[in-house]
Amino acid sequence: MNLVWAAEGVIAGVPAGTILRSAVFRLSVPSGNPDRTTCPRCAAPVPRWLLLRCGHCGQHFGTLGALEWATAVVLGLLFGRFGGQPDMLAFCFLGALGVALAAIDLSVQRLPDRLVLPAYPVLIALLAIAALIGHDAAALGRALLGGLVLGGTYLVLALLRPGGIGGGDVKLAGLAGLALGWLGWPTLIAGGALGFILSGAVSLVLLAARRLALQSMISFGPFMLAGALLASLAGAR
Ligand SMILES: [Zn+2]
Hints:
Elements: H1 3-27, H2 66-82, H3 88-108, H4 113-133, H5 137-160, H6 167-183, H7 185-208, H8 221-234
Helix pairs in contact: 1-2, 1-3, 2-3, 3-4, 3-8, 4-5, 4-6, 5-6, 6-7, 6-8, 7-8
Residues 39, 41-42, 44, 54, 56-57, 59 line the site of zinc ion (ZN).
């Protein structure tokens, strides 16, 4: 972990989190509903960018500073781990996107296609550039296979147990698999497994605290993303 890079990541994370605010606000609506474009308290239209508080009634949008803090922590860790390497941009892109996706999934239990699907060509392009700079075509091939393997694994699980893992999780798994595969097969396996371990551990704690009925759904996206993040930080490359 390079601490100078990590500090720069924390500093970059605060404005990045503010930029993510707009997407999180607009897309935090149940699946199939139109985007949120008005203040939840006074129904005044909200600006397209820089959503901090309502210009009409002063209501803060979302928990004040939460997205900024989360993005600062994630980018701090990723800058510290990947700083100065050709693949830094790819991992920071996925890290920032992951914060927005986790926030939306936690609030409305969905991972919008409109964020996940366009991220595929962007992430593949960023990894391809990193492969060119680093003369590592093998890593790019492994990334593409990794995306297929993790996405395919989630697809099988979703088909075996409908209602547990959703289509949004399958599409996000392909994205996470690209990044984890880039780092190597052990990282892919560790990252994939960690998502289930974290989700299982938190479910048990919530069950024990009687905060969760046995059949109730918890969002899987944040656990998948946290598992991928931890494995990426630990993965040797
Ligand atoms: Zn308002």
